[in-house]
Amino acid sequence: MTIALTACAGGADPVQQESEVSAIQKKQVVELLKSIETGDPKPVSYINPDKYIQHNLAVGDGLAGFGAVLQQLPKGSAKVNTVRVFGDGDFVFAHTDYNFFGPKIGFDIFRFENGKIVEHWDNLQETPASPNPSGNTMIDGPTASKDLEKTAQNKELVRSFVDDILVNGRMEKLGSYIEGENYIQHNPQIGNGLSGLATALQAMAKQGITMKYDRIHRVLGEGNFVLIVSEGSFAGKWTSFYDLFRVENGKIVEHWDTIEAIPPQSEWKNRNGKF
């Protein structure tokens, strides 16, 4: 699939220079993730060996923790296809189709400092066996960002949506954020449109399954794509929610997500926390 990398040319313009740096960082993230599959040692050099803060709670801190996980992988078992990658300042966030101890869809966030990767967060969900009720997978759809000049306002729009609807349950405001039946949904349990969302919520309620967003931790965006990292609960378990939204003309028109239960602290391999 095509990866959304920003094309850059030479020049002294500060905005252009920032775009060039972002493109380099995005390329490095894609190469680092791909190295899980290929075993190529070069991309590890993109990480600061003296400062690599790990927030995947199943992985030990630092480069040593990253290396230990790779050594546990059966040889030739890993597959990595990064479908989307975006940049926001010192952060790069990627959306990847994995086979990594089993098939998973993941969001990864990397923070750069002085040209090196110094911190990593992620959220992984097992890949479902079939598409959602509307035939969409967790990873398909548009990959390239646009409307870069609208990044700040799109981030604010999506932050307000999550705060109003998902955190505070102000469902009467839903129509002001979402483009009705044109809303494309990639959650494996939910169909397209507001009707698909309503049907899924009703089914969850009948099964006694509750989903609650309690706190927004991070908002990252590039143009019309915005990623929100939130904390809450799902089916009674402490949970991390990563939601990626695509915005068109001031409305949310498409949504991808991963939902991951947070293990009890006794099982953590590092003490950096999920967020």
TrEMBL record:
InterPro entries in UniProt: Cyclase_SnoaL-like, NTF2-like_dom_sf, SnoaL-like
Domain SnoaL-like: 158-255
Pfam families cross-referenced by the UniProt entry: SnoaL_2
SUPFAM superfamilies linked: NTF2-like
PANTHER family in alphabetical order: ESTER CYCLASE, POLYKETIDE CYCLASE SNOAL-LIKE DOMAIN
Name of the protein: Nuclear transport factor 2 family protein
Lineage: Bacteria, Pseudomonadati, Pseudomonadota, Betaproteobacteria, Burkholderiales
